[in-house]
Amino acid sequence: MNEKELRRSMSVFPIGTVMTLTDLTARQIRYYEEQKLICPERNEGNRRMYSLNDIDVLLEIKDYLAEGINMAGIKRIYELKENEEENDERSTLTDDDVRRILQDEFLALRGIDTKGPSRFF
DNA sequence: CTTCTGACA
DNA sequence: TGTCAGAA
């Protein structure tokens, strides 16, 4: 990991700063942490300290939410990202994997846990 | 004053 | 998700 990535992953902001920077409530920010979408560190006083990376993810989450994607969908999007990274490292990506990822990406674009296909538009 | 955890009229 | 309490 280079210095640039190191700085972006350095936890330095208290939740208050993150709230003003992302327009999210403390409740939401903590909830997304429970959903393992971000992993802020804790300081000596058990206060959460966020990094620029955490803020970027929070901002992305806010955009997905604005597009109408629910938590289940957002989680899947990040799960797919993890798989993509793993595949890049081991170049184990087959044509069939690509097809499946694109398929899931489409489904994730709008919530999944919804009943029928009646909510496409 | 700011943040944390847990809980729910 | 909001919000309130009690503690740190």
From TrEMBL:
The lineage of its organism: Bacteria, Bacillati, Bacillota, Bacilli, Lactobacillales. Transmembrane segments: none annotated. InterPro entries: DNA-bd_dom_put_sf, MerR-type_HTH_dom, MerR_fam. Gene3D superfamilies: 1.10.1660.10. This is MerR family transcriptional regulator. It comes from Carnobacterium inhibens. The keyword Signal does not apply. CDD domains: HTH_GlnR-like. The keyword Translocase does not apply. Keywords: DNA-binding, Repressor, Transcription, Transcription regulation. Residues 12-80 form the HTH merR-type domain.
